[in-house]
Amino acid sequence: MSRFSHIAPDGASKGAQDSAQTGSQTGSQTSDAFDATHFLTQADAALNHGAFEKALRLYGRALERDRERPEAWLGQVRALLDMGQPEEATSWLEQAAGVLGEIPALLALRAIAAARSGNIDDARAWSDRALRDGRDAAEVWLARAEVVYATGGEKMARVNLGKAHERAPDADTARRCGEVALTAGDLTGALPWLRRAVRDAPESPLAALRMGVYWERAGDLEQARTELSRAVALSPHMESATIALDDLDNRGALSRLKSAFKRWNKG
Length: 267
What we know:
Layout: H1 15-25, H2 36-48, H3 52-65, H4 70-82, H5 86-100, H6 104-116, H7 120-133, H8 138-150, H9 154-167, H10 171-183, H11 187-200, H12 205-218, H13 221-234, H14 239-266
């Protein structure tokens, strides 16, 4: 059974528990008093703060209220992809297709999930279908960039990232452009997008997290620690940032221990 089976939109096994939790956050009201829009607003906020498990539960609640809300399906899949679960995301995408049909944003996410699962031919096919009807959507060009990166086309992938940002020139798109390049290992391509995201959305914990990951991969551990600490300060429950920061601290302690050992060994 999937570890995410509790968020199935056709009735969650943890529904009573989550309803009680939601009720405790909203006074005497329970989750039954709210519509899909309420849960979508909370889910989007959780996703933007890197609280991916919480976002999954809330998108699931939205789908229980209205299975035909594309934002809930797409948000659910984005959270799973951010958690490094492309196979689980594919399962949700297949369910979503049965409800929504082949909308471009859905096809784009299928391309991303396939690329991250190593199914490059499938990824290219899904991306082609997304482009057929969705050339004006940033999501479609982000997916195209990811697929092109997977086939070694770094220069064209950067062009596609630019096209994505042209269609949605905001901090969120800049961050996602940086994420695509970072995932592909294109540090040079990622840096300007991540800097733009941090500049335009200084209160975004996800932007700080991705910037911290960039500096860690670039070998600047102090800058990485600064950005990851900022991400945790902005979103104390962001588990990925906390883990990354702990890992940096452990690496620093190990490095100091090795240096001490070398000094001791030299007498």
